[in-house]
Design a protein that fits this description.
heterodimer; A: two-stranded antiparallel sheet; 14 helices; 4 strands; B: alpha/beta; Rossmann fold; 2 domains; 6-stranded mixed beta sheet
Chain lengths: 358, 266
């Protein structure tokens, strides 16, 4: 009823090419942003911020990274975990080498290390695609995972083989480390994720986004209208890995606080891939949906089942989660291959014409 | 019938010439020693029975296949093979026998994608989608809207092309090719699978493109009525060999063409 575009006339192409051409969408976005930046830090409990919001945002960022590669450019990858690890370890090395520079700067810089490796492991994408490329990125995943465990220089020869995040401050307020407040960490993450999402959305709505999707949908025709395939694919690898790298660095510095090398193993890659598939291939909004569902489901199950008064062992809940997520993936692939984002789109379309069927 | 060879075409220079081009896939000879030229501003048809090597010829012209022998002269530059990117840059656009649109994208985005080569604002501005990048986007949107108006597809602008009926998909594909503002437009069976009305529309679009934009058109088509009406000159291929070349009337009377289409008594 309220979601109508009637009466909203575009008089310029600029207005019509906007990312959110419908007024209600812009209002909705503004409400979400105000809620996230103002309401949650003051009103939400530490538990909610620590356990739900921070992981959700970081995983959504990684999903956006993979979505750029898999959803927009059509290149399957299982190297996400590895690229996230590159970001995390690069950030750790940088901040221990140059403790004077603010850690937020290093978070952004560490993404470029992931970019470099992403381009390197993206090189085979000219010749191979589909499952075969998946195998090539799998090699990246295993190689990087192995490096994190074996190359002790990366952890500064820490005997436990883990990263211990040092305390870093901004205007002498601790941002990272054990003394940082969840509210501040949350705000830093939120700002970074908002910024990077905005940039990604600009990118996918413009020339480069169209080039990516053209390569995804019909690479032959894309080549013949003058899109350089190789450079377009490598650009997707570069930008996708940047996002994954930043997400990995945020994960260790602002969420875990310390990280075993095993954090960035193949399971991580699969988790992000599931988020992208369930959320919606080729949709940035979908990346947030996917992250919320896959990460939130176990928490909802745990809290919900305990709320019902059932005394269930944590292991059982874990198994339940596996089963539910597995069933969901199969269901989504059968019922709506474009994921939650597509369902959301359909809902909006229905709302627009409500109460008429079309 | 179209009046063949207006003054423009008679004096028009050669835009593209293929000389003694041969292409084989292993033992299968797709094209054997074919030569012909395409003059500026004409509509040139390539016809022939199934498997005659027509599509292979188009693929050679826009660089998707690389011939083993022969030379291609395009806009005065002679080379032994085209590369797809050079062909696109040089102004060769193409539609496909089986529609090759970007299925997940809207009609508008498909046609906008056709302008990729003409857009050059770098990654930095693309990330901001502001200033130069937005101006560029708007400027090209304006050009794309002209094409959308020209092809009368305004109402399907925002429809993902995967959901469009076949005839409209063909039209969007033509729009994408036109968005490149090509000098040479290669149309591979633009009317395959269309009903009479759609064929008439498409014929009109092709003639208009040729008239208004001065675009040279190379056309593969099986509907002889369409070919005879539209084209200035016709090349006939059979089993990869050129068997006739000339105006529609000349070609129609050539015995080899009649034999190729109707068969010969043995």
């Amino acid at each position: 009823m309220f979601y109508r575009e009637a009466g909203q006339f575009k008089t310029t192409y600029q207005a019509d090419q906007a990312v959110f051409p419908i007024l209600q969408d812009r209002i909705g976005l503004a409400v979400i942003l105000v809620g996230a930046f103002v309401f949650i830090p003051f009103a939400a409990s530490d538990f909610f911020i620590n356990v739900i919001m921070i992981p959700f945002l970081i995983l959504a960022l990684a999903s956006i990274g993979l979505n750029i590669l898999t959803g927009y450019t059509g290149l399957l990858s299982l190297g996400t975990g590895g690229f996230m690890g590159v970001g995390a370890f690069a950030c750790y090395k940088l901040t221990t080498f140059f403790p004077g520079v603010n850690v937020i700067v290093w978070i952004f810089v560490s993404g470029f290390f992931a970019t470099a490796l992403g381009i390197l492991f993206g090189l085979p994408s000219l010749r191979i695609k589909g499952f075969y490329l998946l195998v090539a990125t799998l090699a990246a995943q295993f190689f990087l995972d192995w490096s994190f465990i074996r190359i002790q220089w990366l952890t500064n020869y820490n005997t436990s083989g883990a990263i211990e995040v040092p305390t870093r401050t901004l205007f002498s307020v601790p941002l990272t480390g054990p003394n940082a407040t969840p509210q501040l960490r949350y705000l830093v993450i939120l700002a970074i994720v908002t910024l990077l999402t905005w940039l990604a959305s600009n990118l996918v709505h413009g020339r480069i986004g169209r080039m990516w999707m053209a390569v995804r949908d019909m690479d032959l025709a894309a080549e013949l209208i003058g899109i350089p395939l190789y450079r377009t694919k490598l650009l997707a690898f570069a930008i996708s890995s940047y996002y994954c790298g930043v997400a990995g660095a945020l994960m260790v510095f602002f969420w875990y606080g310390s990280a075993e090398p095993g954090v960035f193993n193949i399971d991580q890659s699969f988790t992000i891939l599931f988020m992208v598939i369930i959320g919606g291939l080729g949709s940035l909004t979908g990346s947030f949906f996917g992250a919320a569902l896959i990460y939130g489901l176990p928490i909802v199950l745990k809290v919900g089942l305990h709320g019902l008064g059932w005394n269930i062992l944590p292991a059982t809940i874990e198994h339940l989660t596996f089963m539910t997520v597995g069933a969901l993936i199969v269901l989504v692939l059968i019922i709506e291959p474009l994921g939650l984002a597509r369902l959301w789109q359909i809902t909006k379309q229905k709302l627009r014409v409500w109460p008429f069927p079309y | 019938m179209r009046v063949p060879g207006g003054a423009d075409i008679a004096t028009g220079g050669v835009l593209l010439a293929v000389e003694n081009v041969s292409l084989a896939f292993g033992g299968v000879k797709a094209v054997t020693d074919v030569s012909f030229d395409i003059r500026k501003g004409e509509i040139r048809a390539i016809i022939g029975p199934n498997g005659a090597g027509k599509t292979s010829m188009l693929n050679i012209i826009n660089g998707f296949y690389q011939p083993q022998h022969g030379r291609i002269t395009f806009k005065g530059e002679t080379r032994s093979k085209m590369r797809p990117h050079d062909a696109a840059k040089g102004g060769i656009a193409r539609t496909f026998q089986n529609v090759a649109l970007f299925r997940g994208m809207t009609s508008l985005d498909n046609i906008m994608a056709g302008r990729t080569l003409r857009m050059n604002k770098n990654l930095f501005w693309q990330l901001l989608r502001f200033g130069p990048a937005m101006n560029e986007e708007v400027e090209h949107r304006r050009r794309v809207e002209e094409i959308i108006d020209f092809l009368k597809i305004q109402e399907i602008r925002r429809t993902p092309v995967g959901r469009l009926p076949y005839g409209l998909q063909k039209r969007v594909e033509l729009g994408r090719a036109l968005a490149m503002e090509p000098e040479l437009l290669l149309l591979d069976e633009p009317m395959a699978g269309m009903n009479l009305e759609e064929k008439e529309d498409m014929s009109r679009f092709i003639l208009d493109v040729n008239d208004h934009f001065g675009t040279t058109v190379v056309l593969i088509e099986h509907d002889m009525g369409v070919v005879m009406d539209l084209s200035d000159r016709v090349v006939v291929l059979d089993h990869g060999v050129k068997i006739a070349d000339g105006t529609p009337d000349e070609v129609k009377r050539t015995q080899a063409v009649i034999d190729a289409y109707l068969g010969v008594a043995h």
